[in-house]
Amino acid sequence: MSEMRQRILTEATHLFARRGYEGTSVQAISEAVGIRKPSLLYHFSSKALLRDAVLESLLSRWGDVVPQVMTAATTGENRFESTLTEVIGFFEADPDRARLLWREMLDRPDALRSLLSAHLSPWIGLVSSTIRRGQREGIIYADLDPEAWIFWVITMAVAGFSAAGLSGVFSEDAPAHRRAELVRIARVSLFTPPLEAPEHG
Amino acid sequence: MSEMRQRILTEATHLFARRGYEGTSVQAISEAVGIRKPSLLYHFSSKALLRDAVLESLLSRWGDVVPQVMTAATTGENRFESTLTEVIGFFEADPDRARLLWREMLDRPDALRSLLSAHLSPWIGLVSSTIRRGQREGIIYADLDPEAWIFWVITMAVAGFSAAGLSGVFSEDAPAHRRAELVRIARVSLFTPPLEAPEHG
DNA sequence: CCTACCGATCGGTAGG
DNA sequence: CCTACCGATCGGTAGG
Fold this sequence. Notes:
The structure is a homodimer of 201-residue chains. Chain A is an all-alpha fold. Chain A has helices at 3-19, 26-33, 37-43, 47-72, 76-93, 95-107, 109-137, 146-162, 174-190. In chain A, 76% of the residues lie in helices and 0% in strands. Chain A is built from nine helices and no strands. In chain A, helix 1 (3-19) packs across helix 6 (95-107), helix 2 packs across helix 3 and helix 5 (76-93) crosses helix 6 (95-107). Chain A folds into two domains: 1-45, Orthogonal Bundle (Arc Repressor Mutant, subunit A), CATH 1.10.10.60; 55-190, Tetracycline Repressor, domain 2 (Orthogonal Bundle). At the A-B interface, helix 6, helix 7, helix 8 and helix 9 of A face helix 6, helix 7, helix 8 and helix 9 of B. The structure holds a DNA duplex (16 and 16 nucleotides).
């Protein structure tokens, strides 16, 4: 990919994430890159194709990051910690990712659904079967719905970071508290309470 | 409020929720109502003021619904069930509400923050202090962050319904499973596990 | 990668 | 609540 194409993609990602697709003109992207509008349209022959390229580039970056974590993780609790940290870290590293995904979901749910199916399905399947094994072992709640649980945890990660501008409504020093509470909710809603050694019996 | 003003507000809510503010023209709203563009602009003198009125109307409807529930709820577990059911029901009844709120959060986080502070703060304060009482009684996790927990539960409710079009990525019959799993996650992340009578000790 | 230009649509106004 | 109209901006093309 040419360097100019990459620069256009970077600026378009940022502007689409912040102002939305309809709220961003090709003119505005060109200015951010430092070229004229027809020059941009030489690299991406329409605004719609540029949008597709931006989304595709975001999802492929997700695809780069996740497999390592999955294979790296080992035991139950460790796999939980490292995987969740990676998912949160992906969106924390660049909140534009969360904003862009959420806007796409609102604007074009069908298009996003097929892209997510392609890029996420193997990963979801792997996490699901790990959860089911934990359920058979009794360390994970038996009445938990694996796919639904994954949906909600990812939803919290994406939504929480696309809502980064909402600090102050729910509490003062929100970001840090919210992150810790997200991890706590995920953990305690996944693992069954440890059968404590009968200390007081 | 005049009947025509109300009809404009209804159509504008639907179109802003589905296509976004920038993606909806005044012309499109007028057509949905069945009048001409200048006639609409007689009732709302600018598109921006129409947006403000739409958001204000949505939040005041939330304000209508919630207080009853809070006063109606009684004991700990019942209060949890009825309040969560009401929050979910509010967005389930009309997914446009969730979509509109999420779009506003992406487009104008500052404006939404101050509106949410005005409409939600008393309610959040009440739920928080109920949670803190439960923590003192030991039936709610002591390391739970009340405001952050509320943030995540509301986030799941809003996000889950604005993501209604995403069925099929995570599982087949997603909506029903997801709703049940949301309630389970909220409950099990809130209440400490019951100290079972020592059956096997 | 540029200048010059296209028809269509945008939010909004004049005036009745 | 209407017709008629405004300047500005939209995505995109011609042609070099």
